[in-house]
Amino acid sequence: MELETVKITAEITDLNPLGYIIINKSDLTEDHVLFDESNKKSKGKKEDSADDTKTDEQDGNEGV
Fold it and tell me: From CA 22, how far away is CA 55, in angstroms rounded?
């Protein structure tokens, strides 16, 4: 038997850097907040582009 699971938000810590935990959907209550993966992915893309900018700036400064 396969149980359906959901991701819920959790405090970000050294032991849980992703900010979510996975529970059985049957254990989901009104107190839980579902983890929104679309926001997480968007933030990751912004950070990646920011890293690219920093790399470009460093390359430009090194040549001067």
Answer: 36
From first to last of its 64 residues, what are the pLDDT tens digits of the chain?
899 999 999 999 999 999 999 999 999 999 999 999 886 654 444 444 444 444 444 555 555 5
Measured distance CA(18)–CA(21) in Å, rounded: 8
SS3 24: strand
| Phi, psi of 47, deg, nearest 5 | -65, -40
Handedness of CA 26, 27, 30, 33 (dihedral sign): negative
What lies within 8 Å, CB to CB, of 33 at 6+ separation is 8, 9
